[in-house]
Please model this.
Amino acid sequence: MGFLSKLTQACTMGLPFLPEDTCAKAPQVAGIKVQLETFELWQQFDQLGTEMIVTKAGRRMFPTFQVHITGMDPAAEYVLLMDFIPVDDKRYRYAFHSSSWLVAGRGDAAVPGRVHFHPDSPARGAQWMKQTVSFDRLKLTNNLLDDNGHIILNSMHRYQPRLHVVLVDQRKDSQLTAHRNFCTFSFTETRFTAVTAYQNHRITQLKIASNPFAKGFRTTDSDTW
Amino acid sequence: MGFLSKLTQACTMGLPFLPEDTCAKAPQVAGIKVQLETFELWQQFDQLGTEMIVTKAGRRMFPTFQVHITGMDPAAEYVLLMDFIPVDDKRYRYAFHSSSWLVAGRGDAAVPGRVHFHPDSPARGAQWMKQTVSFDRLKLTNNLLDDNGHIILNSMHRYQPRLHVVLVDQRKDSQLTAHRNFCTFSFTETRFTAVTAYQNHRITQLKIASNPFAKGFRTTDSDTW
DNA sequence: GTTTTAACACCTAGGTGTTAAGCT
DNA sequence: AGCTTAACACCTAGGTGTTAAAAC
Model:
């Protein structure tokens, strides 16, 4: 089995969600620090209840998940990838009259678990640390039969994005040590509800105000963010 | 020294230009066949004397260098890269009155030799063979101090693009066998003169007629290609 | 009634040759 | 004179929320 296949398995199967960063004790990953970029923007969305559009063809996230990394071994090789785990086993619906989310029953059947490898992977620590690492190519879809490698999510369900930093072990015949030499980072500010159409109008307005691609919908009064 | 550094050195230094494809006898590269895509278009340009624009910021090639590959080991890993070698040691100028290229003296000082790695490298044979491999991200520049990793060329000089297919040897502590386990392919139809502005008006017309990005300059009479 | 889809106008981002000015 | 540069209008390609219709 190839490296990526093994890694995919390891990352989608056995990893429990932990609210804090988890690092193995291997010297080349233990010291890694990850800082969420555009943190203030994520916070603004989070306070309103972030929503992310999912479409059949795949939709980018906004805000984009991007991080600044320190503490890697500059010469060592790492793979960076993201996955999304359900926050709970509930389905939600939005009550427009009260402008709030309500639990609408148990979660739907789990979708095919997928991961998104950062396209620069694998690369050396020096490269990852040189500048902001952006996952802007990542797309979300609600198409269970998606054939483009996009992340599949259930609409009206809540998800927590996670970042995994995996050390590529160069030693010949080493068992892939993905279960040991990796770190997992999650930022609770990046949680969101997957939707096919925006529910909370204030989320729509914040997206329009902050996403350059939505500039066409800006009015003078929504410019103040 | 890293893999790519070694490879870069190996490819820019010691490789003599050969008009025919050259393959080492290693079983995983000896059977590789490479077919130039959009061959007819390249031929049309070649018959007129292909010109490629070079700019300070970097300019794509048109036609794009793209190939279809067969005969790889589907499970083996390969790196694909391109370089450009001078066809001769001459400088050219275009005689408008006779619509032909003339030798204008000896070639200028050689530019920094660079290679362009296909961004999907390294990847398995199965991946490379699955669909057309396109080098559309490759850019040509005349800026000797270019900092973007673009291919540096002398304007008014003739060049031959080359494709190198390098087998990535997975064995630990194997000396990098780039000097043995690789193939080089060149297609004489892809030779061109680097220019900062088009010289032959028929080349301009064929570019306008065939490059979608130049559609704005099409007239009804140049549509017939 | 709620959720999803597809077409759409309006953007960003960047690839074209043109053109006029600048360089040597 | 020959060659190069930079601004430009006009494209391609694709990321936005909107909207009305469709699906369930």
About this structure: Chain A touches chain B at residues 2, 124, 170-173 (CB under 8 Å).
